Amino acid sequence: MKSLQQRLSVALVISLIIIFPTLWWLTDSTMQDIAEKYVMSHLAQEAESVLAATQVDKDEKITLNTKQINPVYLQPFSGRYYQLRSNDDLIRSRSLWDKELIIPDLSEGEKRRLYLSGPQQQSLLVMAYGYNKHDRTITVAVAEDLSPTLAFIKPFQSRFMLIALAMLLLLIAMQIIILNHMFQPLKRIKKQISALDQGEIDRFDTDVPKEVSPLVEVTNQLLDVLDQHPELHPRDNPEALKHVTKLPLAELQQLPDQETVQSEPAVDPPLQAQPVNAERMLETIFQATPNPSVIECDIEQEILTLISVLESMYQEKNLDITFIMPQTDVLLMDGENLLELSGNLLKNACKWAQSKVLLSVEIDESIHLRIEDDGPGISETGLIDLAQQNIVLDQATSGYLLGLTTARLIAQQHSGQLKLSQSNELGGYCVEVVLPLASAL
Question: 295-440, superfamily in CATH?
Fold first, then answer.
C-alpha cells in the first residue's frame, strides 16, 4: 500500500501540472485577443477613411480619391490593405497588387471579422463593413497583417512561460517540504510504535493531529487495560513462557553431546545440571500462577454490546454480524476475560471479513464459542504451522496471530482449548473455543 504522504504529493503535483498549463494558455489567449481588438479598433477607423474618400464619377461609377488615403496602402505588400465593392465596381489598394480578397457583400450596418491569407501568404485580420453612400450599398474591407503584432507579444509569452515553469517547480518543492513537515507527527507515532515494541515506552504521546487523535486515545486505553491485566501479555504469561523456553531448553540439553563440549570434561557436569535447574524454576513459576476469578456474567448481553461496538468500528464495511445463542441461565465466568476472549476473536473476524461474520454459542457438555467469517481464510499449511507454534505471539507477524494468542491464553486459564479450521458455512476462517462447563460454573 502506498503511503498517504506519497499519494498526496502525487495528487498535488498532478494538480499543479494541470493548473499551470491552463493558466499559460489563458494568458496567451488573452494577449492575442487584446492584440486583435487593438488592430480591429484601428481597422474601423481606416474603413471610415476609405469610405470618406469614395466618389461617384460622371459614369455613375465609384472612384476613390487616393490623396485622402494613407500612403501605406500604395506600397506593394505593405501588410495594410483595403478593398471596396459596390455592385460590379471593385477597387483594391495598390498594396494588394493583383490579389483579390474574397469578401462577401454586406448590407448596410452589417459587420464581419475574417481571417484570410493575403499576398505572400500573410496572415490577415480583415474587418468588413456594409455602408450606404451615394444611394448605393458599398462594402468596405480593410486588412492588416497580424505577424508584426504577434511577434511583438511573443517575447512576453516566452518570459511568462519561463516564469510559470519556475513557479511550478518552486511550488512542487514547497508542497513536498510542507507535506513532509505535516507528516512529522505521524512519523513520530511510527517511531513510538517501534519504541513500544521494544518496551521503551508504555503508551503513545497524545500530542498528535486531530485526525488520528481518536486512534491514539483508543490504543492508549487498550494499553492501560493490558497493564491492568498482565496475564493477557503473552510474554508475561506462564503458558507462553513455557512454550518460548521449550526450544532453548532442548538445545541446552543437546549441548553436552556436541564434540566441542565433550573435549572439555570439566564443562560437562555443570551443563548437565542446567536444564534440570531451569525446568525446576519454571515449574515453580507455573505452580504459583493464581487461578482466574469467577464472577457472574451475562454472556448474551456482553456479546451483544460487543457486536454493537464492532459494527460502529467497521461501519465502512457494512458488516452483517449474526449472533446465535440458545436460551440458558447466567454462567459463572470471569466477565472481563470472556469479553476479551470474544473481542479478540470477533475483531479478527471483522478485520478480514468481506461482508459477513457469524458468532454462535452452543452449550452441551461444554461451552462452544465459534466465530466464522467470509474472508480469505488460511491455508491448511498455515493452520498446521499455527498449531505447531501453539499460537505464541511472533512480533514479526501480522494478521490473526495477536488475537489468537490472547484468546488461547484465556481459554487455557479456564481449562479450555482453542481450535482452528476453515468455515464450512462462510468459507473463511473459523475459530472455536471450547470451555468445560465444570470450570465455568
Answer: Histidine kinase-like ATPase, C-terminal domain (3.30.565.10)
